[in-house]
Amino acid sequence: MTPDVRERFYQEWCCCRSEQEYLALDITSTSSYSQFIDDVERGYNRDKEDLAQVNYVC
């Protein structure tokens, strides 16, 4: 999913929601030793591991 597709989804989803509802997101990352997963990337790692990671928005 590209960032543009994700942003469009959130914009359309928010239009369908009531003003009395709230949306909360959490970002979780999983470190990986794999060199074959296209979605792993370097980023902030709070465990100080020198590994690429996959980031999930929940």
What's the layout of helices and strands?
Blueprint: H1 3-16, E1 27-32, E2 52-57
Antiparallel strand pairs: 1-2
Categorize the overall geometry.
Answer: elongated
User: Distance between the terminal alpha carbons, to the nearest Å?
Assistant: 14 Å
- Please tell me the overall pLDDT: 79
How many individual helices? 1
Number of strands: 2
Q: Into which percentage range does the β-strand content fall? A: 15-25%
Structural class: alpha+beta
Sheet with most strands: strand arrangement? 1-2
Low-confidence region ranges: none
Main β-sheet description: 2 strands, antiparallel
Order of helices and strands: HEE
Radius of gyration: 15 Å
Q: What is the helical fraction, as a range of percent?
A: 10-25%
Structure write-up:
The protein has 58 residues and is α+β, with helices and mostly antiparallel strands. The protein has a two-stranded antiparallel sheet. The longest helix is centred in the N-terminal third of the chain and has 14 residues. The relative contact order is 0.23.
Tag the structure with descriptive keywords.
single chain; 58 residues; alpha+beta; two-stranded antiparallel sheet; 1 helix
Q: Would you kindly provide a brief summary of this structure?
A:
This protein is an alpha+beta fold and 58 residues long. Helices cover 24% and strands 21% of the residues.
